[in-house]
Amino acid sequence: MSEPFPWLSLDTDEEVVWSGRPRLHVVGWLAVPALAIPALLVVVWPSLLSAVVGVLAWAVISYLGYVYVTNIDYVISTKYVYTKFGILGRSVTQIGLHNIQDTTLSQGIFGTHSNYGTISFSTAGGEGATLSFYLVDEPSTVKSTIDRQITRARKGTKDREEHSNERNLDDLLTELRATRKAAQRIDQLFEHGGNRP
Questions:
Q1: Which of 92, 93, 122, 174 is the most buried (most CB within 10 A)?
Q2: How does 47-85 read in b/e, with b if 16+ C-beta sit within 10 Å?
Q3: pTM higher than 0.85
């Protein structure tokens, strides 16, 4: 399951339940203003060469924006949420589901209309959001997926703690029984004056 994410090393009992990245229209936020470059070059230096240079500069900027966005990965697994940024270098951040205290969904006017938004995670004891999925499609569905996984992780942790407590109680009872038997043997020894009964 980790094959599409060579940067991700899953535990043997861990599975990816959702993956995504920012909506590609983010590239447009860079590409549209960058159209000013060829326009300015043609105004300042009116020639075919300036138009070509301006269009090439616009294309390079737009392509770099596209490459940057398509190299961002957001992953939800059965144990962690992950973000990966970077083209040449790589920055991976992960948070255990059991450590997530709160998830927040933010959508602006356009996000509400076009169904995209940002989901932020905060951890217990942390100040503010420590990890975010920016501008993902269908953010309500993604948030529901995360909330389900958090609930499962917490239930699993609670079950493990209860099982551990039961096991500790069983171990304690076994030790108490062994201690009681030892005390009974010592009592019998004292009753018989140090001679075995």
A1: 122
A2: eeebeebbeeebeebbeebbebbeebbbbbbbbbbbbbe
A3: no
| 18, 77 Cβ separation under 8 angstroms | no
Radius of gyration of the chain (CA): 30
Cα separation, 4 vs 114, whole angstroms: 27
CA distances from 17 to 40, 73, 74 (A): 47, 14, 11
* No. of helices (H) and no. of strands (E), the chain: 5, 7
CB of 73 within 8 A of CB of 19? yes
Give the tens place of pLDDT for each residue, 133-164. 999 999 999 999 999 999 988 887 666 667 77
Closest to 60 (Cα-Cα) out of 38, 77, 41: 38
Confidence check: pLDDT of 85 > 80: yes
The span from the CA of 152 to the CA of 173, in Å, is 31
Q: What does the pLDDT read at residue 1? A: 45
Q: Check the CA dihedral 146-148-153-158 and report its sign.
A: positive
